[in-house]
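Researcher: I'd like a candidate sequence for this fold, 294 residues long. If you have to choose between options at a position, lean toward the conservative one.
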């Protein structure tokens, strides 16, 4: 009988072993994560793995892959390991200085695109506050004609990543980065805008114990936590947006279903906003607030 240890480490065997290992360490999507890591290590597309099941990869990419498997088993997100994540059908460079783009945030982009369809002026002026990787700003620049977008973040490291993605997607003529705290990052005398979008920190420190350990340990705290209740940054953003939005301008921000009612109250007590709508995410949770200025 052949000793299993003497069997060749084909692509098929590597995937099967890693999937089983990831299941034991409670990875979110064991097979998918194994495929993503192996395809990246081999420099191929995931679909190509299935046409090469019986091939034995070279030692160098296998060594890289095994190192990545150890890192993933220790909790590090796959997106940070491979250095990129897909968002709104676009690939974005990411590292530990920025949040990993998530499907829920695509609702923010969709709502912003729909709001832009109601604007007659050109160019449409947009601010993306807390831009992180720049995924929202870049997605809007790629899908909305004639826009000028200011991408703002408090973290200079995050801005560096956003700039990489702006350059990679060739939207530098439409997106400009600013480093600073919310709208205070803008130069004095900046023009009012038609739209402000934001995926701000909205997890309350009171909830920190319920946050997935991999998220809490590896993703940037300043982009996750918005004070004790999660509303600190959102409240400041709402107040600052009033003077920066044009008449009938729109503020759109992502938040947590847990604090949605509190966020709606913050908008409603601000008399400069005429109406407020809510968008649900793919799971049916209330996720995005759309506030329209008078």
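Model: Candidate sequence:
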């Amino acid at each position: 009988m052949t000793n299993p240890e003497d069997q060749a480490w084909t692509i098929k065997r590597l995937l099967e072993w890693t999937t089983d290992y990831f299941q034991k360490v409670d990875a979110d999507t064991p097979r998918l994560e194994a495929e993503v890591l192996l395809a990246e290590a081999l420099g191929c597309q995931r679909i190509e793995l299935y046409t090469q099941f019986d091939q034995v990869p070279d030692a160098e990419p296998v060594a890289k892959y095994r190192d990545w498997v150890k890192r993933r088993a220790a909790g590090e997100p796959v997106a940070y390991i491979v250095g990129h994540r897909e968002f709104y059908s676009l690939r974005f460079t990411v590292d530990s200085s920025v949040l990993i783009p998530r499907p829920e945030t695509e609702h923010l982009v969709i709502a912003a695109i729909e709001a832009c369809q109601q604007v007659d002026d050109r160019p449409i002026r947009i601010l993306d506050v807390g831009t992180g990787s720049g995924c929202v700003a870049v997605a809007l620049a790629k899908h909305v004609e004639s826009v000028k977008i200011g991408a703002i973040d408090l973290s200079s490291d995050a801005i560096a990543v956003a700039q990489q993605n702006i350059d990679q997607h060739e939207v530098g003529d439409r997106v400009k980065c600013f480093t600073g705290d919310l709208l205070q990052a803008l130069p004095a005398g900046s023009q009012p805008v038609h739209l402000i979008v934001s995926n701000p920190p909205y997890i309350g420190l009171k909830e920190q114990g319920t946050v997935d350990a991999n998220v809490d340990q590896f993703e940037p705290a300043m982009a996750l936590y918005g004070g004790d209740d999660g509303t600190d940054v959102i409240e400041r953003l709402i107040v600052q947006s009033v003077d920066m939005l044009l008449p009938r301008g729109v503020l759109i921000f992502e938040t947590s279903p847990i604090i949605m009612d509190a966020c709606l109250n913050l908008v409603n007590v601000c008399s400069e906003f005429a109406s407020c709508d809510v968008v649900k995410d793919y799971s049916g949770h209330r996720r995005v607030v759309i506030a329209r200025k008078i």
